[in-house]
# Entry
Amino acid sequence: MKYKAVVFDLFGTLVDNFTRRDYDSVMAEIANILKAPSNDFIKLWKSSFNDRVTGVHGDQRESFAHICRELKVQISPEQIERAFIIRMDFCRRTTIPRNGSVEVLATLRKDGYKIGLISDCTGEIPLVWHETPFANLFDVKIFSCMVKTKKPDPRIYQMATDELRVKPEECLYVGDGSSNELTGALKMGMHPVRIRDPKDLDEDQFMEREDGWTGPKISYLKEVLDLVKG
# Structure
């Protein structure tokens, strides 16, 4: 067996990346509920990404309150809760598996591979994870907001390989290249491959991705099954 484990990114890999248009629309709706100026709210929200995905803010409620304080906007607990519900609904809509992803994971498990997840995400992802079809398909799940660090920090990859009880060189890493994750995985000794769905429009993607990646590339998750056997 060439690899003992396969470690996946979440967004842009197992689920579709949300688009700038959809993301900004939801955040504008939240800004309206909080009575905050929409453009300023969205700008501060995006600039707080690192704090939100590394757990500096306890959850999205705390993030809303933090940004409203920055904007000197008075908000009530009821407004925060309404905003939180909308954010959670958006999270549920954006964690729907890509076509074939559940089947690929199930096949890898059946064939004896260990399966890991490393996701740069905010606190709502762990909250809804048990509701997704992915819930019982991973041996190890590393959520950045829970471990207080994000890709490409070497520690987040080390956490995954340690918990999987494999060496980095025994791992295939699959991601779309956001957060410089592929370069980070390569530096750790893993074998990264970039996945990019041909239907993705680069100008519509929310996150910057490693477009200069010169390593292995695939277009569909089912190609992972050939990589692990090759």
Notes: The first helix runs from residue 20 to 33. The chain has a mean pLDDT of 93.
